[in-house]
Fold each of these.
Amino acid sequence: MERIKRRRLSASTWRGMLARFASSGLTVQAFCRREAVSTTSFYRWRSVLEAAPADEDPGPRAPIAATASLAADFVDLGPLRPTTSSRCELRLDLGGGVLLHLVRG
């Protein structure tokens, strides 16, 4: 079976590609076929670059587990043991209006 080699394009390359798309007059599918990129990557990069300032590079980010500053903020709550109610509820305010609410049981 032939393995497909994936290429990683930089944010500046995607900016240029999106500019070419805007002046191409093609549909997203036809343009992506011509440029040999997936439509999923096209839509993802378009949304990422629209949200980021032009001088900021929204390139690859380090995985959360590998980020040292976040590792220092880890709190070990120990194993979850069944209780009479056997229900566990956790609410975390992640900032920016994001609330993580986990319920088990």
Amino acid sequence: MAGVGAARGQMIHRLALIVSVLACLVAATGRADAHPHVWVTMTEELLYAADGSVTGVRHAWTFDDMFSAFATQGIEQKTKGTFTRQELEPLAKVNVESLKEYAYFTYAKVNGKRQKDAFAEPVDYWLDYNAKETVLTLHFTLPFKNPVKAEALEVEVYDPEFFIDFGFAEKNAVRLVNAPARCTASIEKPHDDNFPATLRLDQSFMTSEANIGMGASFANRISVKCP
């Protein structure tokens, strides 16, 4: 039970989704093992201006059902079994504010060069709840501080500490919104036979088998070419 409590505490510390229990759980927990405790399925949109520059990245991140159930504990609801966007609004605000510490798990390369601090603070953020699948989805847009107009753009999404395992949705994972006709997009997530990206690990997978910083090896990459 202590291990479960520690994992839950770190989960809240990393995403800060439940303010009311944050202090209690974080105070009781140490560092979580370097393997995934939260799974996120992503759909992504790259937003283009009329001049062909990329102005931002629009995320839609769906959390796994176990985490979604934990995250929604204690939230008042008018209709049992579901949550409105308004009921989830405080949760969404805490979410995006807390993710700033982790650079929103989003990184950009322009013509092969890493762009440090490329994104401004999120806009247009909200959470919604799928009552049938019992999962939360966080929507938010990260504007580029300076719109990007380049032949090659890469956007990567990953948690460097591999506490969260991000993965593209099986269908319609990436869309270019209002992009020039010449632009094309591809996606990539490196595969390691010793650590399949689709594997959900239990607590027997210890830090001897996974190292802090390994998350970059499992980065989800969007590559856009505009020749």
Amino acid sequence: MTAIIHPDMAKPVRYLTCCCCGETTRGRQWHNRDTGFGLCVGCLPLCSRGETAEGFESCYGVRGVHYAVG
């Protein structure tokens, strides 16, 4: 079985501002988010509440690639 690597993994991990709480977080820029903004781990439960997996990904990106990075 071959692991699929997301193309954004080549982007640098940066300090971003959480789009929910305004705290600093580390992640990669998601194309559907304003430049310099991402999502912090602390806001995951609030932001994912009531969202489908597809809807959440379209707003915030992929876990481990764009947010909740290592």
Amino acid sequence: MRSIPVDEFVEGLCAIPEGEFSVGTVYDYLKLHPVHEETLEPYLFFSRNHYTRNLIFKNDLFELLAICWEVGQASLIHNHADQNCWMTMPIGKLRVQNFRVVEQNELTGHCRLEPTDAVDIYNLLPAEVDPEEPVHQVLNLREFEERAVSLHIYSRPFDRCLVYSPAKAEYSEVQTSYTSEYGKLREGERL
């Protein structure tokens, strides 16, 4: 399958009508249009301390981020603020561990989660977050032995999500941020 430049990938996403920008349709687009990794170079920023979130494109319907993972890095367990999410892997491999929310109390912040299925994603095998059970964690396991870059499409863009701590049986809302925007590090950002 021919890979395409990231600009062409964005054009294709923009061509999907708003009413069809949903689970299934976007996933099918990702399967048929892998991104040529060299075209992502301006958006790739790695940090030894934490994975990085690098904004490539954003409009009212969706945002596209390149998330850069060093070996052993993982996200916190989180949701996507009731928005859809798709992931594709131009570089490396990641594991997505899904969770079911068994209990969640807004007044106390108490929660109880149980792990469900885990899926490995890699080049030519994208993933979409299940809107019915959207809580998950993304991991670049040490056993994968390489850096990874995942492209994440969020529809609609959001700047807050819930983060879960099963060990403490609690959750809270956090603000999200970008490491870089359109190929430029944000002011004050250190890698």
